[in-house]
Amino acid sequence: MSRLFSAYVIVDWSAAAKPTTGADSIWIGVLKRDVRFRLTFESYNPSTRGEAETRLAAVLDDLKKRGERALVGFDFPLGFPRGLSQALSLPGEVRWRAVWDQLAKMVKDKADNTNNRFGVGSEINRRLTGGPFPFWGCPPKDALTTLQPKRPREHGPDDLPEFRYADEAAKGAHSIWKLYYNGSVGGQAIVGIPAVRRLKDARGNTVRVWPFETGFKTLTEADLDGVATVVAEVYPSLIKAVPGAGEVKDLAQVRGLAEHFAKLDEAGKLGAIFAAPKSLSEEAVASAETEEGWILGA
Predict the structure, then answer these.
(1) Is the distance from CB of 118 to CB of 131 less than 8 angstroms?
(2) pTM for the full model?
(3) What angle do CA 210, 224, 222 make, to 5 degrees?
(4) What is the bridge-based pairing of β-strands 7-12 and 207-209?
(5) What letter does residue 137 receive in the DSSP assignment?
């Protein structure tokens, strides 16, 4: 079986409100083939999300020009817990895309990394419940009537779920409703999804988002005909990364995850991990395909 991809790009994102590099900042790892078809790794540590988006665009366009298909993994959720699109009465039948479009309208992310993620969470809370729920987490100075530093209560049976099916499968994954503190994937998703949306929309159907546009199934070469890039959600903690001398953990993780997917692809086993786990219920599969998304390899 031939390889599905020629390059593997892993992005460790950040919702930082100011330019930053080093640990706990944005890291982009690119594992691609050199002129002798040997896999080589290069990394980038842009100080802002704007710089990261520009770099990713250049990487993707270069790979496409060379006729090389890329797997691009982002370490934040590409979808929210089931029911959000309906609860917000968003237009359109494609639920994941409706949420993407809504975030793109709301998010203001400036060149210096200042952003309004807390304001976005607060406004969505207002529309959903009129109070500081389900989004939570912010510095005390940014607290609002509809967004508080601490979670006000547990999720009840009539609330949107706290976790996606993928988060439950991954075990240890943080809730997307958490906007601040360690593991604040909610903040990363709010500022990250609009960036992925721009990268995708600028390249049309040559970019497919898994599992929303590919199906939650084993992928084959035939499924990817005409596709230059497959975008997926990844979980860096899926593998154990061992930093080299002087390396930060983030860099080791993006390199390790890229190498992990490359090895699976070389062995003809990568396509299978795009399929839904056999134990997953029909409801969970449908939710993952239409609005929640999934974590590659979970």
Answers:
(1) no
(2) 0.97
(3) 130
(4) unpaired
(5) -
